[in-house]
Write a structure and sequence with these properties.
The complex is a heterodimer of chains A (628) and B (330).
Chain A (H helix, E strand, L loop, with lengths): L6 H18 L6 E9 L8 H13 L6 E5 L2 E5 L3 H15 L3 E9 L3 H5 L6 E2 L1 H4 L1 E8 L1 H23 L6 E7 L3 E6 L2 H13 L6 E8 L2 E8 L1 H24 L7 E5 L3 E7 L4 H8 L3 E8 L14 E5 L6 E11 L3 E8 L6 E7 L1 H13 L4 E18 L2 E19 L7 E7 L2 H12 L7 E9 L1 H55 L2 E2 L1 H31 L3 H33 L3 H32 L11
Parallel strand pairs in A: 5-22
Antiparallel strand pairs in A: 1-3, 1-4, 2-3, 6-12, 6-21, 7-8, 8-10, 9-10, 11-12, 13-15, 13-18, 14-15, 16-17, 17-20, 18-19
Helix pairs in contact in A: 1-12, 1-15, 2-3, 6-7, 12-13, 12-15, 13-14, 13-15, 14-15
Chain B lengths: L11 H4 L11 H21 L3 E2 L1 H4 L1 E7 L6 H10 L6 E5 L1 E10 L6 E2 L10 H12 L4 E8 L1 H29 L2 H25 L2 E2 L1 H31 L5 H33 L2 H31 L21
Parallel strand pairs in B: 1-7
Antiparallel strand pairs in B: 2-4, 2-6, 3-4
Helix pairs in contact in B: 2-7, 6-7, 6-8, 7-8, 7-10, 8-9, 8-10, 9-10
The chains are: A alpha+beta (628), B alpha+beta (330).
Chain lengths: 628, 330
């Protein structure tokens, strides 16, 4: 008789398998290309009339929807493929106008009750879906150098002004990688310099060390490690945000814009085929210009006088006449941060320009105190449309440029690279302004270091290949196990099937993306999962052949094999974890499925089969084992 | 069935009822063969090197669909004329699928700016050159990897490999003993060298997935070795009599069934991947297949031989005595 196997364990195993089956089930309903039409005014849903219009529009353009569905007030139309999807978006956008938004989306038509409990199919990687992939490298150093230059110049100026009479800085030098060296006439001067730096706010970023340079008291000013990594992080993040915003405009379903490593950003756009469009959006610039406000007026006919241009303010639409001459451009802006001014406590934005622009600003402000200055914001947007030209469908881009004034303020005093814009209504407004000022150009230059395109047919091929290998591999192992281990083989096979289901469920729940190497990982797990069972069954067989009673042989088999199983799986698990950390993209997918597979296979092979064995043989008298 | 080897004593009958196969008596031959394979592998690695894929070298890849009359040779000739000298053009899968690879640091990376869309990527330029001559060529996929990324990946991979092997060594040392550890590591290094050697000789592309496969082989080969080592340890403690060689032989005999089974099942799925997984998984599955075969062999012979060579005795296991008494076999 087999030793009693706790009932709760059996129930737990069955429950786990059942739940996993539930969460793996949505994969039967894979995500398909759709267009999602929603009403732009909040709270409204798409009416029946509009639904009919949509039908007509699609029909008259030769687009046959596969299915239609309502969800949360929006209408979702399922389409045949990516091309039909793009076409549908263009047609509907034109036909429905401003009141409705038409977005591309990947939706699974799994039943709503399944979605309600969080059951979604797995996301497919680019190699299975098709799309474009970019890896961009951010040149933070360049930006940092510009900042340091302005700090350096600023410090020199400050020292000239505040050092005690008769003293000055004897030498000033840049120090690689991120610092400066100053030497002073005497140590009083140095102390004063120290104070100046610390009080000016630079003390937060820089570390000061006393030293001697050529016999004079000197000061080593270096950027602290923390400040450095913070700047790196924030620069890359800023670029990432700017990119993410731009990509949103493409209306791509599920784009990926993620930081990779300490200075790279990965961009993946599933379904997009034309890298040109993607690159145009990535490279889209916004620019800003500091210009003087003209004191002239519009002519009676509404024309701007010579030397001026007419613009409108962003939210108020107030017309403002600006001089044509540009004082400083967006690329001059090194930093812009929102805060509160020390005296009045009202919201302000502190701006840092680089030294060249700072000089221009200085000469301008010294001649124009009291006069107003404005910031003009220029945005180039890129959109793509499908048109029919000469009977052939073509994709064309349109770029449009929007210009508006985002800030007008009076010049209170003379300033150069560092100044504040005050008088803002709220910290919220200050934040918005500083964001716009910073996104005037990308925080730091970016370079495309990797670029790939995968066509949709290749993607489909890959899915087929992956699926086929999994199926065939699985079947072959099934057959083999039955031949070798008879009834116990069948038990192992059931555990194996459960294992695959559990892996799929976990991947779906984690929201992990499935790639072709990921599928390979699952296939490998199928081959390796049987190992645990082989260990157990071999041991059982061995004990039985030694003369131990079958029931005891089973118990002994499970017991003795246990440590070997753990040992064996741990080594592969360690490898999977190493791969997870060092791998990028494809390798990561493989590492994830391998790691998950190993853990679940231990569960199903040991506990899972145990439950089945007890189900089968629990209360019977065992005289022999059908174990091959 | 109480067959015993002429070297062993009568009282062995109870402990080793099965026939013990004399694995270790062939170890000189096995070691000789291993040595030969290692030497050949190293020679090839130094002379020919590895055919590194784009992941490591950087460069451009184009996957094309072409009418079958446009052969890779024609494509290569055209590219040659156009000034693209080091292109590798191959069929894969069918005569309609062509892959064009241009490895190396040829290209500068483009900066993301307003006119970046007008700058064609190296892959696009290449495609343009081909489509100019043959408009029926379609692109299925393309990839461009800048030089810096490739270099980084190489370094990272090397580090990961070394790190993995060190970790494995630590693990074995912790679980067993230093002698076993050395035996296991010897087996691992043997496996890695021969697997890479096969890639060097056949010229199969070594890309990032191959590295992942080699690491997986390291983990997997260790599995086998651990199972055998576990049994050797158990037997050293339990078996009352018998030379170390006999104990190792017996342990291997007892575990060979399982070792072969696991390897066979794994090989079966790997063959499915190899034949059905498509071009991108080819090198990956090949690496695993070679690794599993070599790894199984090494778990039996290399580990066992090293353990014997280090004159392992029962005393080595005294610190962890397992006091399991033997069952009374009927």
């Amino acid at each position: 008789m087999l030793k009693q196997f706790p009932l709760w364990k059996s129930l737990l195993v069955l429950a786990v398998v059942a739940i996993c089956a539930l969460y793996a089930f949505p994969n039967i309903y894979p995500e398909q290309p759709t267009v999602q039409i929603g009403a732009n005014s909040a709270g409204q849903s798409v009416s029946e009339e509009v639904a009919d219009t949509i039908d007509e529009l699609l029909a008259s353009n030769g687009i046959e929807p596969l299915k239609k569905m309502r969800r949360d007030g929006s209408l979702i139309v399922f389409l045949e493929d990516d091309d039909a999807q793009k076409k549908a978006q263009d047609v509907l956008k034109d036909g429905l106008g401003e009141e409705y938004s038409v977005a591309l989306n990947l939706v699974s038509d799994s039943p709503s009750w399944l979605r309600a409990i969080g059951g979604e199919p797995m996301k497919l990687g680019l190699d299975l879906r098709g799309g474009v992939h970019f890896l961009l490298e951010v040149d933070v150093d360049k930006k940092l150098k510009a900042y340091e230059e302005s700090v350096f110049t600023g410090l020199k100026k400050t020292f000239r002004k505040v050092l005690p009479k008769g003293t000055k800085y004897e030498s000033a030098e840049r120090v690689e990688p991120h610092g400066f060296k100053f030497s002073f006439t005497n140590s009083d001067a140095r102390t004063k310099a120290r104070q100046e730096i610390l009080s000016g706010g630079l003390g937060n970023e820089y570390v000061l060390t006393n030293t001697t340079i050529n016999g004079n008291p000197g000061l080593l000013v270096k950027m602290s490690e923390t400040a450095l990594s913070k700047r790196f992080a924030s620069t890359v993040n800023q670029n990432r945000i700017a990119l993410a915003n731009r990509i949103n405009e493409l209306g791509v379903a599920e784009p990926l814009v993620q930081q990779q490593g300490y200075n790279r950003i990965v961009v993946e756009l599933p379904g997009v085929q034309d890298t040109a469009i993607a690159k145009r959006v990535l490279g889209r610039t916004a620019d800003l210009e500091y210009r003087a406000v003209s004191d002239k007026r519009l002519s009676p006919s509404g024309r701007a006088p010579a030397g001026t241009e007419l613009f409108y303010e962003k939210d108020t639409n107030r017309p403002i006449l600006l001089k044509k001459q540009v004082i400083a451009r967006g690329e001059c802006v090194i930093d812009a941060s929102a805060g509160f001014d020390q005296q009045g406590g009202s919201a302000q934005v502190s701006v840092s320009l680089d030294s060249k622009c700072g000089n221009k600003m200085l000469s301008f402000t010294s001649q124009n105190v009291g006069k107003p200055m404005a910031v003009l914001f220029k945005e180039t947007k890129a959109t793509s449309k499908t048109v029919v030209k000469d009977g052939v469908e073509k994709e064309i881009f349109e770029t449009s440029e929007e210009k508006y004034v985002i800030s007008v303020a009076n010049i209170r005093g003379v300033f150069g690279s560092q100044f504040q814009t005050t008088g803002l209504d709220s910290i919220h407004e200050a934040n918005e302004l500083s964001l716009l000022l910073r996104s005037g150009a990308l925080a730091a230059p970016m370079y495309i270091v990797e670029e790939s395109t995968i066509g949709p047919s290749l993607g489909k091929k890959n899915i087929e290949r992956g699926f086929m290998s999994l199926l065939v591999g699985f079947l072959v192992v099934l057959l083999f196990m039955i031949l070798k281990y008879r009834v116990f083989g069948v038990i192992a096979n059931l555990a194996l099937a459960a294992n695959v289901v559990i892996i799929l469920a976990i991947l779906s729940l984690l929201g992990a993306t499935l790639t072709l190497p990921g599928i390979a990982g699952i296939v490998l797990t199928v081959g390796m999962a049987v190992d645990a069972n082989v260990l157990i069954f071999s041991r059982i067989k061995e004990e039985w052949k030694r003369g131990i009673k079958p029931a005891d042989a089973i118990d002994l088999g499970y017991q003795k094999a246990f440590s070997a199983i753990i040992d064996a799986n741990i080594t592969t698990l360690i490898i999977a974890i190493i791969l997870l950390f060092m791998g990028a993209g494809s390798v990561k997918g493989f590492a994830i499925t391998l790691a998950i597979g190993i853990l679940t296979s231990m569960f199903t092979a040991i506990t899972g089969t145990r439950v089945l064995v007890h189900l089968l043989y629990g209360n019977k008298k065992l005289n022999k084992l059908s174990i091959g | 069935m109480a067959k015993s080897k002429k070297k062993s004593q009568q009282s062995e009958v109870i402990e080793t009822p099965q026939r013990v196969i004399l694995w270790m008596s062939w170890r000189k031959i096995a070691l000789g063969m291993s040595l030969l394979l290692i030497v050949v592998s190293l020679a090839s690695l130094f002379a020919r090197g590895l055919n590194l894929g784009l992941d490591f070298t950087g460069g451009t890849v184009l996957e094309l669909k072409v009418p079958s009359d446009i052969t890779p040779q024609k494509i290569r000739a055209h590219l040659d004329e156009s000034g693209v000298k080091n292109a590798v053009v191959q069929n894969f899968g069918s005569s309609e699928d062509v892959i064009v690879r241009i490895p190396g640091k040829a290209e500068e990376v483009a900066q993301v700016s307003e006119d970046v869309a007008d700058k064609k990527s190296p892959a696009e330029i290449l495609l343009g050159q081909l489509q100019n001559k043959w408009s029926s060529i379609e692109m299925e996929g393309s990839s461009f990897i800048g030089p810096a990324v490739g270099d980084e990946l190489r370094d990272k991979s090397g580090t990961a490999m070394i790190f993995a092997i060190l970790l494995m060594m630590a693990y074995i040392w912790f679980r067993f003993s230093i002698k076993f550890g050395l035996g296991a590591i010897a087996a691992l290094v043997h496996d890695v060298i021969i697997t890479l050697g096969v890639f060097s000789i056949t010229g199969l592309t070594v890309d990032l997935t191959v590295l992942a496969a080699v690491l997986a082989v390291v983990g997997y080969s260790l599995n086998d070795t651990v199972v055998v080592a576990d049994r050797i340890r158990e037997n050293f403690i339990e078996m009352r009599e018998g030379s170390p060689e006999h104990i190792v032989n017996a342990s291997i005999t007892q575990t060979i069934d399982r070792t072969l089974m696991t390897s066979i099942t794994t090989l079966l799925v790997l063959l499915a991947l190899f034949f059905l997984g498509g071009e991108s998984l080819l090198s990956f599955s090949a690496a695993l297949i070679v690794g599993v075969i070599v790894g199984t062999y090494s778990s039996v012979y290399i580990a066992g031989s090293v353990i014997l060579a280090m004159k392992t005795t029962k005393e080595d296991f005294m610190e962890k005595p397992k006091q399991e008494l033997l069952d009374d076999a009927p």
